[in-house]
C-alpha cells in the first residue's frame, strides 16, 4: 500500500499529515523547527518526530511513504541535497514552504499568492504549474515584509533624529522606547528579522505621517510585484501572513482577493498525492 | 611636563602620535584594530601598544599624557565608559573616529566632511564646534556608503532575475559571478559590510543602466544630507574615503570641494592640544 506524507516546515515548527490515496487523512503530527538551511540535523530530527507521530497507531512503514516536504530554507540546494540523503521515504520531494503554502491556498486554481509575514514571498500558479518569486531574505529582499517595514521605521527614526527627515509622533515614541539613537543602533546590529517585524503592526495601523509613508511605499512595491506577476492577466490574489489583511485593504480594488482554500500542510499533502 | 597623545583607531588598525605643547610630534606608533564597540579588551591592548611605541626613546610616563582618542564604535557609550576606566592617562577624551577624521580634514575652518567608505558618516564644524551626523551602520544607515551600494546592486540583481526590474549587463554579470540567485542569497546572509563594499567601484564607474540608477539615487541622498547640514550656508565640503572622488565629481558644481588638510591622527593630536 502506498501512503502519502505531507510536511509543512517553518522556522518555528513543523507539521506532518499522512493520507491514503483518496486523500483521507490517517494521522497528524507536529514537532520543532524545520528550516533546512539553518539546521539540517535538527530539521531531519523534527521531520521524523512529526512523521512518526502521524503514523502512530498504523502499521505503515516509513519506507512506504511518498513524501512532499515544504520547508523553510529549501531554496538553498546544498542543504536540501543533504537532507534528501538522510530521509528514509520511498520517494521524497522537497520544495520551499512557500510552494506548499501557495498550493494549499490556491488548490488547483490559477492565482497569485502573496505571503506577507516576517518575510515575504510570492507565487503564481497557472494551469497547475507553480512558480515562486521573491522570498530572498531580510538582507537583500523580502519586499513589504514585516521585518523590512520595522527596519525602515527604525532607519527613519535615526534619519529624523539627524534632521534628515521630519520627526513625527511615532518616530519620537520609538526613539524613546529604544533609548534614543544609541539604543536603536545597538538593536539594529543584533536584532533578528522577527524582532524588527514586531514593529510592523504599529506601522500598518497608524495615522502617523512617517508610518503612512513607509507603508504606502511598501504597498506600491507589492502592487508593482503583483502587476508583474499578473503579466496582463487578472488572476485572483490570495494574501497569507499577519500583514495580509493590511495589504488586502489597499489592493482589494485592483484585483479579486480570495481567502486561502487550505493550509501549507494541505498543500503538501495535495502535492504528495500528485506524485503518485 | 604635559605631553599630548592622539589616537586614530579604526576597524583595521590604530595609530598613535605623541606631541609637545607646541604641537611638535615626538613619536609615532601603530598597532591592530581599535573598534571599541566590537572588542574593548583588544582595543585597549592595541591602543597601549601603539602608545608605548610612540613613547619609546622618551622618558615620558603614560600617566602624564593628555589623550584624545578617535575610535570606531565610540558612539556606543557603555563600551566607551568601560575603556575609559581601563586607560592610565592623566586625561582621556574618547570621540568617534569620524570626529577626529573631520577635525583633521578641516583643521579649524568651518566646513562639512562626508566620509564615504565602506560605511558613511557626516560632520559639520561651525566656529570650532563639531557635530556628527549619520554613521548609523550598515543595517539602519550608512547612506551612500560602499557597503550599501553593493547590497543594493545584489538586491537589484535578484529583482531583475525575478522579472521585477530590467536585467542589465552588469546585473547579469554579477548573477553569473556569484553562482546565480542562490549564490547571491547565501552571500547576502553571511557577508560583512566590507565584502558588499568590494562591489562599489564597479557601480560608481559604470555606464550600466542599473549601476547608474543606483549611484544616482545615492548621489541624490548624499546631496540631500549635505543640503540639510548646510542649513542655508555655503560651507566648503571635504570628501574622505574611497568613494569620495566619485561623489566629488557629481556634487562639485553645487559646493566648493576642498582636499583634506590632514589625517584623523592629525585631528586627534589637534583635539588633544585643545584639551590643555
TrEMBL record, chains A, B:
One of its GO terms (molecular function) is kinase activity. Residues 5-230 form the ATPase BadF/BadG/BcrA/BcrD type domain. Keywords: Kinase, Transferase. The keyword Transferase applies. It comes from the Bacteria. This is Glucosamine kinase. The lineage of its organism: Bacteria, Pseudomonadati, Pseudomonadota, Alphaproteobacteria, Rhodobacterales.
Amino acid at each position: 500500500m502506498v501512503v502519502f506524507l505531507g510536511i509543512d516546515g517553518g522556522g518555528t515548527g513543523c507539521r506532518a499529515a499522512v493520507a491514503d490515496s483518496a486523500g483521507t487523512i490517517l494521522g497528524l503530527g507536529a514537532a520543532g523547527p524545520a528550516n533546512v538551511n539553518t539546521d539540517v540535523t535538527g530539521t531531519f530530527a523534527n521531520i521524523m518526530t512529526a512523521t512518526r507521530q502521524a503514523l502512530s497507531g498504523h502499521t505503515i512503514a516509513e519506507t512506504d511513504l511518498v513524501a512532499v516536504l515544504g520547508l523553510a530554507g529549501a531554496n538553498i540546494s546544498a542543504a536540501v541535497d543533504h537532507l534528501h540523503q538522510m530521509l528514509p521515504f520511498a520517494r521524497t520531494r522537497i520544495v520551499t514552504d512557500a510552494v506548499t503554502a501557495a498550493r494549499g491556498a490556491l488548490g488547483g486554481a490559477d492565482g497569485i499568492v502573496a505571503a506577507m509575514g516576517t518575510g515575504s514571498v510570492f507565487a503564481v500558479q497557472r494551469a497547475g504549474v507553480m512558480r515562486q518569486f521573491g522570498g530572498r531574505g531580510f538582507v537583500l529582499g523580502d519586499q513589504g515584509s514585516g521585518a523590512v517595514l520595522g527596519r525602515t521605521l527604525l532607519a527613519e527614526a535615526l534619519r529624523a533624529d539627524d534632521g534628515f527627515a521630519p520627526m513625527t509622533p511615532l518616530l519620537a515614541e520609538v526613539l524613546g522606547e529604544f533609548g534614543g539613537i544609541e539604543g536603536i543602533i545597538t538593536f539594529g546590529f543584533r536584532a533578528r528579522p522577527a524582532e524588527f517585524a514586531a514593529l510592523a503592526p504599529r506601522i500598518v495601523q497608524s495615522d502617523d505621517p512617517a508610518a503612512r509613508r513607509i507603508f504606502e511605499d511598501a504597498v506600491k512595491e507589492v502592487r508593482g510585484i503583483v502587476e508583474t506577476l499578473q503579466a496582463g492577466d487578472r488572476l485572483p490574489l490570495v494574501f497569507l501572513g499577519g500583514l495580509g489583511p493590511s495589504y488586502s485593504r489597499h489592493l482589494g480594488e485592483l484585483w479579486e482577493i480570495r481567502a486561502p482554500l487550505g493550509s501549507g500542510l494541505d498543500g503538501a499533502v495535495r502535492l504528495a498525492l500528485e506524485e503518485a
